[in-house]
Amino acid sequence: MEDWVYRQAVPPRPTSAAFKDDLSNEVSVFIATLTTVDRILDGHPGDSVAQITAGQARAQGYKIIRDPDHGLVPNDPSHVVLCPPPGLGKKRSTKAARALAESATWAYLRPKDS
């Protein structure tokens, strides 16, 4: 989603919205070694793909839970969910999402005018 790319940053980076769900604060992600950028983007041609490490997620207090049944396709072993620590408040979840966004790199950044 273009609104999840902060292009004013040099270089552009994901916004914190890419790492935050306002309902559960869980974040759906994929294990890079078990999938491809093309597979993630299938059906989402206007999107970009950011990447973080498991260590970066854990440093913000997230647990990484395998969730193969709720990915892009059934039985997707690459799909995991980043689960925040219990009781994570809105201010802390925003701070954690911002830290992940600032540490992310691009697996694929869609050109601005595409």
* Major beta sheet, strand line-up: 3-6-5
| Portion in beta strands | 15-25%
Which stretches are low in confidence, meaning pLDDT under 50 for 5 or more residues running? none
Mean pLDDT: 89
Largest sheet: 3 strands, antiparallel
Radius of gyration: 14 Å
Which oligomeric state applies?
Answer: single chain
Domain tally: 1
Q: What is the count of helical runs?
A: 3
Summarize the structure.
The protein has 3 helices and 7 strands. It is α+β, with helices and mostly antiparallel strands.
Task: Sum up the structure in keywords.
22% helix; single chain; 21% strand; globular; alpha+beta; three-stranded antiparallel sheet; two-stranded antiparallel ribbon; 114 residues
Descriptive report:
The chain is α+β, with helices and mostly antiparallel strands and 114 residues long. It has one domain (2-106). The chain is 22% helix and 21% strand. It is built from three helices and seven strands. It has helices spanning 37-41, 54-59, 90-103; strands at 5-6, 13-14, 27-30, 49-51, 63-66, 79-83, 105-108. The strands form three sheets. Strands 3-6-5 form a three-stranded antiparallel sheet. A hairpin with a 6-residue loop joins strand 1 and strand 2. The longest helix has 14 residues, at 90-103.
